[in-house]
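just leaving the lab so this will be short. what follows is a protein written twice so to speak, once as letters and once as structure tokens for the fold. can you read through it and tell me how you think this chain folds. anything you notice is useful, everything is just below:
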Amino acid sequence: MNFKKIITLVVAVVISVSAVAYNSPKDMGYVVVTEYINKKNAKDVSDIIQKIIDENPNRTIYFPDGVYIISKPIVTPADPTKSVALQLSNFAVIKAAEGWAHEEAMIRLGGKDAANNIRIPGSNYYLDGGIIDGSGVAKGVSIDGGRETVIRNTSIKNVVMGIHVKYGANSGSSDSDIMSVNIVGNNTPECVGVLVEGYDNTFTNMRIGGVHIGFHIRSGANALRNIHPLYYGGNEEYQSSIGFLDERFDNYYDFCYSDEFATAFQTNDGRNLYSNCFAYWYSKRGDKHTVFRSTGAFNSDVMNLNVGFGAHNATKENKILEIAKPGGKGVFFNLNVGDENFVTSQTHLPYMR
């Protein structure tokens, strides 16, 4: 092959690769919402976006950078034959309109056309990317129905509640996967980062701030890994703040970090597994700091727990464990406390292994 042919071939390859790399969303088959609305002039695009969803089953709905004001929830179908994927560009913002007055979340995934079917292609619909802004008054995203729903790479800001996984379609199982999501609440005593009522979900790599309860779980068979809720609210309601509130059992926590909440982990008398978790405080906020509180007997297995007690902690009590009933088969294995001189109760000692 001569030199001229080699140059021609290289140029052709570069052009081909560039064409693939810079394909537009429309070239990839996406439905681009800005072809239907003028986001600069539209004050409320709720109805237009809903119409786009309803008329484009099994398509990816793409939101370019910009602000999209909605005055009512956007609802996607759970039926796999009608489902859509919502793909937001990095700086696409779906924002609750002034005067928002709905109890439901801004984005309701699987909120219409109920179905319990993973055999038909289309069951794995998702919300990916962008920013959901609750304007301080709205709930962010809910998974209302269907199965295998995904939320990923999304920032949920200024919300009353970040994510609500409702009771699932498959005998309570919602089978959702939520990953790489950041949540910032409206910093009120009513604010919850994530509420989980459906079973069999996975949550990974999440940061949650400005909430009173970081993670609230009412179901079982959920896996949480690298979840970091942070409290930075006022002192008035501080003592009722909780990093991880678990009202069920059979949930698995790995590398979960409660930061500054009055109670780091609260359980009932059910059995959960906590591995490589953290509870830290950096201020004297409140009279009492509790790592684990059980509303019944203590039955959870806690391995490799790290606790940051020190001179900067609560003014009256620093407890590893608080229990409502004696007994239980819980275990603390390989407990690491920053400074045991600041632990004011020995309730945990019978459970040490």
Notes: Residues 13-20 have pLDDT under 50 and may be disordered.
